[in-house]
């Protein structure tokens, strides 16, 4: 009997640890995805400007404007999304109270697990800004356009590999495939933005 009790306790402890890890992993994965979004979108934006403007100031100002706009957009979107989720969970809890489905202990634990819209909004904005800072810092102190473009691509590629690896660890997926997928996707986004901006500029539209 003692052995069975110890085994059951170990299984329960493992389940609790797995649950806690899963909860933390969801937040961390969301942060990694937000940072990756900021990295790719701002790098692509800067590459597009760099295709038609040689001035480093134009690239930095464009990237900074994109950082602020993107962080605000991410924060507002996350706030609205999580607030909607919170409303649904509160409504569900009220229905369960009316039907007597909840016990007092479960009610207390559920309240502690309610989503926090403001926390989610701040985390999303910070994650996006963190990713966006990579191409901005890479381009900030380089005057030559070709060298600047190469440094931005190199810095962004390294960051993509890092974010892809972290995402693979959190999602428990093959690291090589995850890194390759993220890296190729980032390269495609930058190349398409650069190419289309160059094409539009060459057609006669002046910036």
From TrEMBL:
Membrane-topology annotation of the record: Multi-pass membrane protein
BP GO terms, sorted: intracellular manganese ion homeostasis
Residue span of region Disordered: 94-114
Protein name from the UniProt record: Vacuolar iron transporter
InterPro entries from the UniProt entry: Ccc1_fam
Localisation per UniProt entry: Vacuole membrane
Bilayer-spanning residue ranges: 27-46, 58-76, 120-142, 149-170, 182-201
GO (cellular component) term, any one: vacuolar membrane
Taxonomic lineage: Eukaryota, Viridiplantae, Streptophyta, Embryophyta, Tracheophyta
An MF annotation (GO) of this entry: iron ion transmembrane transporter activity
Principal place of residence: membrane
Native species: Escallonia herrerae
Catalyzed reaction equations: Fe(2+)(in) = Fe(2+)(out)
Function noted in UniProt: Vacuolar Fe(2+) uptake transporter.
Protein family (similarity comment): Belongs to the CCC1 family.
One Pfam family cited in the UniProt record for this chain: VIT1
């Amino acid at each position: 009997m003692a052995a069975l009790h110890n085994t059951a306790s170990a299984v329960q402890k493992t389940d609790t640890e797995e649950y806690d890890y899963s909860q933390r992993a969801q937040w961390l994965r969301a942060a990694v995805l937000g940072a990756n979004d900021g990295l790719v979108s701002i790098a692509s934006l800067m590459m597009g400007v760099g295709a038609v403007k040689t001035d480093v100031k134009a690239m930095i100002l464009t990237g900074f404007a994109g950082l602020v706009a993107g962080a605000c957009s991410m924060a507002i979107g996350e706030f609205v999304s999580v607030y909607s989720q919170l409303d649904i969970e509160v409504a569900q809890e009220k229905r369960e109270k009316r039907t007597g489905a909840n016990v007092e202990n479960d009610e207390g634990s559920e309240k502690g697990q309610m989503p926090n819209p403001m926390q989610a909004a701040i985390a999303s904005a910070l994650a996006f800004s963190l990713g966006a800072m990579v191409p901005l810092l890479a381009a900030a102190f380089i005057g030559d356009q070709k060298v600047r473009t190469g440094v931005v691509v190199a810095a962004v590629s390294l960051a993509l590999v890092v974010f892809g690896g972290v995402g693979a660890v959190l999602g428990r997926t093959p690291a090589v495939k995850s890194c390759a997928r993220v890296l190729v996707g980032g390269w495609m986004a930058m190349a398409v933005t650069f190419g289309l901006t160059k094409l539009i500029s060459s057609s006669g539209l002046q910036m």
